[in-house]
């Protein structure tokens, strides 16, 4: 008898929770949503995530605020490991992604995630890597740089923010395209430390974020020699791309930033987020502040991001082979 | 003197309200364990979205200065340094509080913070371009030698014995290697995912300093008569000012050291207080009283950590290079309003730049006023029965460790290090050198690896690290710093005794 009662109770509870789950999908979100950023407070990703989620609370958006949680460490690996293994797939925990960082890290190994661990929602920004030199440098174009590197193999020092990040990818692509060997110096402390090394003359050149390089050029500290993207950037219309300068470097190193959910999040919630978030990124306050901060926006839908992820996976596997 | 023209902006009603609010809020956030100045400023950034650029920066500037000073409150009363900047304050400040002189310790800490802070900001006002160039002069080889200079004080810091001090430093170094190495991207000593991101400095600080204290109190048991309840001697502010004016040496060493070290990108804020503490001890007439509640220790540490605030912003304001994590957050606060720092910041946006600097100047004074006001009340905390205090400290320690990045892993790390430290302390090791090793390890390592990579591609290792006046000067200071105590021992007391080594 007891067993029967227990069985019925179990069945009822199960059904109730199913119904509740279905209803929850409709009403989503009923409480504030967390967005995990795997870099520290004040960094570019954190800074932009705080801006693009400004409008989440408005009625025609999510009608609930999005709160930022930082889980920095090991170049983003700590946060994304946590997100892939521990975050609940209920739509209330989202994360910011950085491409090519997490794809490159998963190819290199030693982490608990890959592109298959996450569901992309939407992309908000794209920060291409650029090649910078100090303002008094003798280099005035990429061909000057390549000529020097050919005459002095392995002697051209250039900085970037660590290994298996956009800067490193751009560095590898430039070396491969020109067929030269240069000395890539990964710095600890992100793009700012790498930029300091260029301005102070610790290194001869550097790869850095377009947004930071743009500011440094405005301040009169650096020259920007090339953009590692498919076309020129609105912030720097006078700077030619690598391709224009005869280097076969595509946009594989562009730092794409966007929002993703853990694998297993209910489809209804993913659809709702995928429909709402691009709208939210286009909000006039968001666009105004992003522009003011010199952060290039690039809004992409879920389908576009899925295609972009797949392409990166392919290019990066090829590039990082044998490293 | 241009900054004087912009002072009236700070006194506008809204600006003044923000300044007062930022200062009081900053003191409270600073006194809360686990909330470092960087986090406090980052938390405030969203509020500045709705303000004018100058007003937003007033809020951030006031919060920055007062959180650094507020960290002293928990360091002195609870032995929980709010941030690495307050480690040295905890050493003698807590001892003073235990002896019933907590009110004096707090007053001295706020007074010397204000003196150091005002001088730091004045340096920023008058010498910004010079300071920024000076900050750029430090390349990887110089930062490496600087970290080594920091290592030389490990042996003399806190522990009675040099060998135990050095051993503690090595433990700190080892802890700092745990996790992913950012430069080469390899894992080291990651036996559990909790530490895959390395040992976070704030939970480590809390664990190493606060937990052994808690265990000691619990271990004594209830109802024992030898439980010390500190009788708080209330202390008039006038007398505190008198006390401070009799100790100009500590104040001067603290301010100068803090201002110079604060300038160096990536190193400054974290170790300014500790280096100043060590220098003051070396130049003191009675160095043996340090660690036993010596007011000079509190004065030097607090003067240094606030003197560093002004100069640390010079590279940010003129070169757009954030020299510290907090400066990076402030950069975000500037960018959000479309203000790009750079050498022409003071020409293009004088009202914003000068209002920001002025607010930090006025913020120091307000911080002093409110700080002294709460010092009297806060010191009574030490009067609570010790068992109750221990429970509160334990709760705050867990809260502080968790709040850094919302991670239980940090709480486990904090607890583990705390328990380990309890046993280490019983064998005469102390926490300060461990923390210093934890801070300096990554600086020394990263700069050595980077320097070596650059050197191998250019002039060669020996040339890179051993030439140039700045390298040679730093090496000379390192050698002096090692020789000084040795010479002193040889001259004054040949018989140091085995126990001391």
Task: Pick out its properties.
heterodimer, A: 323 residues, alpha/beta, D-Maltodextrin-Binding Protein, domain 2, 2 domains, 6-stranded mixed beta sheet, 5-stranded mixed beta sheet, 42% helix, B: 501 residues, mainly alpha, two-stranded antiparallel ribbon, 23 helices
Give the SSE order of chain A as H and E letters.
HEHEHEHEEHEHEHEHEEHHEH
The fraction of residues in strands of chain A falls at: 15-25%
The figure for the number of domains of chain A is: 2
Quaternary state of the chains: heterodimer
Instruction: Output the CATH homologous superfamily of the largest domain in chain A.
Output: Bordetella uptake gene, domain 1
The total beta strand count of chain B reads 2
**Integer average pLDDT of chain A:** 88
The shape of chain A, in one word, is: globular
Structure description:
The complex is a heterodimer of chains A (323) and B (501). With 323 residues, chain A is α/β, with parallel strands linked by helices. A 6-stranded mixed beta sheet of chain A has the order 2-1-3-10-4-11, sandwiched between helices. The mean pLDDT of chain A is 88. Chain A contains 11 helices and 11 strands. The N and C termini of chain A lie far apart (66 Å). Chain A folds into 2 domains: 23-126 and 256-320, Bordetella uptake gene, domain 1 (D-Maltodextrin-Binding Protein, domain 2); 129-245, Periplasmic binding protein-like II (D-Maltodextrin-Binding Protein, domain 2). Chain B is mainly α and 501 residues long. Chain B has one domain (2-492). Chain B contains 23 helices and 2 strands. Chain B has a two-stranded antiparallel sheet. The longest helix of chain B is centred in the N-terminal third of the chain and has 35 residues, at 102-136. The radius of gyration of chain B is 22 Å and the shape is globular. Chain B starts with 6 loop residues before the first helix and ends in a 9-residue tail after the last helix. Residues 494-501 of chain B have low confidence and may be disordered. Classes of the chains: A alpha/beta (323), B mainly alpha (501). Chains A and B meet through α2, α3, β7, α7 and α8 of A and α3, β1, α16 and α21 of B.
């Amino acid at each position: 008898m007891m067993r029967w009662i227990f069985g019925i109770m179990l069945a009822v509870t199960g059904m109730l929770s199913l119904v509740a789950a279905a209803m929850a999908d409709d009403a989503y979100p009923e409480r504030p949503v967390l967005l995990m950023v795997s870099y520290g407070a004040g960094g570019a990703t954190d800074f932009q995530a705080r801006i693009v989620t400004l409008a989440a609370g408005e009625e025609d958006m999510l009608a609930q605020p999005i709160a930022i949680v930082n889980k920095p460490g090991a170049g983003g690996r700590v946060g994304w490991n946590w997100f892939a293994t521990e975050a609940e797939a209920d739509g209330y925990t989202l994360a910011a992604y950085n491409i090519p960082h997490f794809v490159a890290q998963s190819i290199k190994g030693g982490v608990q995630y890959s592109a298959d661990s996450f569901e992309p929602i939407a992309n908000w920004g794209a920060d291409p890597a650029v090649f910078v030199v100090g303002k008094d440098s003798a280099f005035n174009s990429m061909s000057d740089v390549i000529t020097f590197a050919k005459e002095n193999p392995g002697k051209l020092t250039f900085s970037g923010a660590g290994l298996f990040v956009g800067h490193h990818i751009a560095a590898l692509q430039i070396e491969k395209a020109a067929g030269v060997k240069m000395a890539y110096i990964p710095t600890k402390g992100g793009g700012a430390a790498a930029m300091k090394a260029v301005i102070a003359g610790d290194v001869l050149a550097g790869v850095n974020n377009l947004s930071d390089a743009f500011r440094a050029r405005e301040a009169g500290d650096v020259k920007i020699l090339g953009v590692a993207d498919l076309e020129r950037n609105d912030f720097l219309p006078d700077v030619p791309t690598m391709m224009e300068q005869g280097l076969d470097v595509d946009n594989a190193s562009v730092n794409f930033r966007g929002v993703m959910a853990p694998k297993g999040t209910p489809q209804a919630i993913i659809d709702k987020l995928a429909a709402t978030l691009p709208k939210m990124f286009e909000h006039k306050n968001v666009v105004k502040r992003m522009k003011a901060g010199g952060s290039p926006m690039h809004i992409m839908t879920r389908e576009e991001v899925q295609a972009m992820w797949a392409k990166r996976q392919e290019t990066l596997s090829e590039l990082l082979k044998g490293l | 003197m241009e900054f004087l023209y912009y002072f009236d902006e700070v006194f506008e009603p809204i600006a003044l309200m923000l300044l007062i609010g930022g200062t009081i809020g900053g003191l409270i956030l600073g006194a809360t364990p686990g909330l470092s100045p960087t986090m406090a400023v980052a938390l405030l950034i969203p509020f500045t979205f709705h303000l004018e650029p100058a007003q937003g920066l007033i809020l951030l500037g006031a919060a920055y200065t007062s959180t650094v000073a507020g960290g002293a409150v928990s360091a002195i009363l609870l032995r929980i340094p709010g941030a690495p900047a307050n480690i040295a304050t905890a050493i003698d400040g807590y001892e003073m509080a235990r002896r019933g002189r907590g009110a004096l310790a707090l007053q001295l800490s706020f007074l010397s913070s204000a003196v150091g802070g005002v001088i730091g900001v004045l340096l920023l006002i008058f010498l910004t371009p010079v300071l920024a160039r000076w900050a750029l002069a430090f390349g990887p080889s110089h930062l490496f030698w600087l970290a080594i200079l920091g290592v030389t004080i490990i042996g003399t810091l806190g522990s009675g014995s040099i060998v135990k001090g050095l051993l503690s430093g090595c433990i700190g170094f080892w802890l700092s290697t745990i996790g992913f190495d950012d430069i080469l991207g390899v894992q080291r000593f990651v036996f559990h995912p909790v530490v895959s991101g390395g040992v976070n400095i704030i939970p480590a600080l809390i664990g190493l300093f606060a937990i052994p204290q808690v265990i000691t109190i619990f271990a004594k048991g209830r109802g024992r008569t030898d439980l010390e309840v500190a009788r708080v001697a209330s202390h008039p502010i006038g007398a505190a000012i008198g006390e401070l004016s009799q100790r100009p040496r500590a104040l001067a060493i603290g301010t100068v050291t803090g201002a110079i070290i604060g300038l160096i990108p990536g190193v400054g804020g974290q170790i300014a207080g500790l280096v100043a503490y060590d220098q003051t001890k070396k130049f003191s007439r009675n160095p043996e009283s340090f660690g036993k509640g010596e007011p000079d220790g509190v004065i030097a540490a607090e003067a240094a950590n606030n003197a560093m605030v002004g100069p640390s912003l010079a590279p940010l304001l003129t070169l757009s290079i954030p020299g510290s994590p907090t400066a990076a957050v402030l950069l975000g606060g500037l960018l959000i309003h479309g203000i790009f720092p750079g050498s022409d910041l003071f020409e293009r946006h004088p009202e914003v730049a000068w209002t920001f600097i002025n607010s930090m100047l006025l913020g120091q004074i307000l911080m002093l006023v409110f700080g002294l006001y709460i010092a009297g009340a806060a010191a009574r905390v030490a009067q609570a029965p010790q068992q109750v205090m221990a429970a509160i400290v334990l709760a705050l320690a867990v809260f502080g460790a968790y709040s850094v990045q919302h991670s239980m892993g940090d709480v486990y790390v904090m607890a583990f290090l705390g328990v380990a430290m309890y046993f280490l302390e019983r064998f005469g090791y102390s926490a300060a050198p461990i923390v210093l090793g934890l801070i300096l390890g990554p600086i020394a390592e990263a700069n050595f690896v980077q320097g070596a990579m650059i050197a191998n591609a250019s002039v060669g290792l020996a040339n890179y690290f051993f030439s140039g006046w700045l390298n040679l000067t730093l090496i000379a200071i390192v050698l002096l710093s090692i020789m000084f105590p040795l010479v002193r021992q040889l001259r004054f007391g040949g018989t140091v005794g085995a126990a001391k080594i």
